[in-house]
Amino acid sequence: MPHTMLETRNLVKRYDGFTAVDDLSFEVYQGDIFGLLGPNGAGKTTAIRTIMDIFKPDEGTIRVLGEPPGVVRRRIGYLPEERGLYQDIKVLDVLIYLAELKGTPRSTAREQALSWLERVELSEWAKHKVRDLSRGMQQKLQFVVSVVHGPELLILDEPFQGLDPINVDLLKRLIRELQADGKTIMLSAHQMNLVEALCERILLIDDGKGVLYGDLADIKREHAPGTVRLRTSDPIGALPGVAKAEQRDDTFTLTLEGITPQDLLRELLDRGITVESFEVATTPLEDIFITVVKERDNA
Amino acid sequence: MRRVLIVARHEYLVNVRRVGFIVMTALVPLLGAAGLFVAAFFGGQAASFLASTFVPEEGNIGIVDELGAFTPILPEYEELIHLYPDEEQGRAAVRSEEMASLLIVPEDYMDSGQVTIITKEGGFSAAVLEDSDTIQAFFVDHLLQDEVDPQVRRRVADPIKPVIVSLEEEAGEAEEGPLSIILNLMVPYFLGILLVMTIFVTSGYLLQGVAKEKTSRVMEIILSSVTARELLAGKVLGLGALGLTQIVIWLGSSVALSGGSAGLLGIALPFMVRPQVLILGVVYYVLGFLVYAVLMGGVGALGTTQQESQQLAGIFSLMAAIPLMLGGFMFTNPNMAFVRVLSWFPLTAPTMMLLRLPMTQVPTVDVVGSIVMLLLAIPVILWAGSKVFRMGLLMYGKRPGLRQVLRALRQA
Description:
The structure holds 2 protein chains of 2 kinds.
Chain A (H helix, E strand, L loop, with lengths): L3 E12 L2 E12 L3 E5 L6 H8 L7 E6 L11 E4 L11 H11 L4 H14 L15 H13 L5 E5 L7 H16 L3 E6 L2 H7 L2 E6 L2 E7 H7 L4 E5 L10 E7 L2 E6 L4 H10 L6 E4 L4 H14 L1
Parallel strand pairs in A: 3-7, 3-8, 5-6, 6-7
Antiparallel strand pairs in A: 1-2, 1-4, 8-9, 10-12, 10-13, 11-12
Helix pairs in contact in A: 2-3
Chain B lengths: L1 H15 L2 H36 L6 E5 L15 E4 L2 H9 L5 E5 L3 H4 L3 E4 L4 H8 L1 H11 L6 H8 L19 H39 L3 H5 L4 H30 L3 H13 L1 H28 L3 H20 L1 H6 L4 H8 L4 H8 L7 H30 L8 H9 L2
Parallel strand pairs in B: 1-2, 1-3
Antiparallel strand pairs in B: 3-4
């Protein structure tokens, strides 16, 4: 059983009679890169702010690293959607101050800040004021702020927002490195390709409600049931349980009915067909996202 | 607590480097130094300029004696006062500036006491002449010259040289003359204003700081590390230390500029006469700073821009300035009912008491009552301030209405 780092149960948050988060329950496990997805205004940021103890929930419970929100602030790193830094203070001083607020001793904070500045190629800017940095540099610095104190759990609200492709790649690499170091990451995003590339588990929310939740591979499989992609130069003929077959060159897209992909693969091997490649076809996450949200809108 | 201290240190270090703080801190000693420079180099000229402007030359006073009691003029006044046979000649002398002023003593002077004073420009110099000790003595000496011996005449002309002794202050040294008035009234008053200024300057920094953090969107990161109450407490502590730094620099520079003793004596004497005033002064200063710093923190979080926050804060600054505006009333009666009421109201109490304490023996009930009211008010303001602070911090581009503020206060 994986260790739970973050858990919400029946979370509700309302503003002026409007329910921004509605009965939301999910878990983030240790070592996860967990994606919180949803269209604009779905309630992602409100859910995150409630987890971060910036807002108080109206109903439900939250456990962060086993504790109620606000108890373990120093073990969490947070990149808010609304970003900003002290413009008149030097880069290194900002990092040291914010790391100290998270409980890191000053000397350690300094060492870690310098190390992170090197990782994001901002070492030579350490003694400059934040306002001297370009927008892209400030965004990288903002990310460093969330990790400089070495948190166990990292919560990133729209981390790729406004980044150029080079910095998107850099951030993806850093997130993977953090995961490899044993950190747990929860990120909210609306760029589905990035979520697909990074996350193992997701929660899709719409109108404050959780509508898709679980292992990303499972979700994709569920939304593309019984479709396999097969490459072979042998003729395949009529196969039992295959309702539809489309061929392009030597690649077949087969729609299954009443059998699993494993059954089909066994049948192909039994018939002595040379299988050059065999994959369970999945629908892109973006398509699943659009379909689910539209279905809810039409309902 | 550690996080409160980290915020406090950060606030102190950031604000101590502010241009506004450096200018304000340097301005008072610089003005003092400029004053000393002016006094040292131009003191003599300035004094004679003031004398020539405001005090008429006594040698240039003419008199027309219709009563006959002033003729001939006694020898000791001959150089100062000149006799004219009639008003016409006297007026001509004033017109030609031979005389600065002319006194006409009518025949019915003994009944009416009326004397006409004619000057070229009128106004202030006539009023000064009326109160002149020389003129008073001139009249007494001439009217009583044949009846009373000179010593009694001198006493009649200047009957009282007061030495004031307060029974409550009998242990202290009694003082006399204008220096006493300056030390007892003016110095504490301006010291009070100075202290009030530091409260507003430093709580103003808090307001600016909060508004800036809010508009630069850095607040959410801070609030993910510390609670709103820790943040507010750290800011109040850091900026309190900043205000203290300013006062220490001002006092230190005044001591240095005056060569040590004089400046320190001038500031400390009214307090030293009654040491409890000094202690109470510190108490009101601290309480006043706490009230206003927390208020400014809360208000700073409400505005969407720094300007908007400052406009909102203006309401409270005005309230605290009321006692300063009432300075005139306090000079005449520091224990009047209205002044006492304002001493009990927590938002005006610190300013009012800082100004009142050195001026008079404030009734004990006022001191105890105002401190109790402040002590009760501070936790309430801190509680409400941090609620509003927390709510206001995260409302970007939109100012919370009264309903939202009230709802934030109701929330646990």
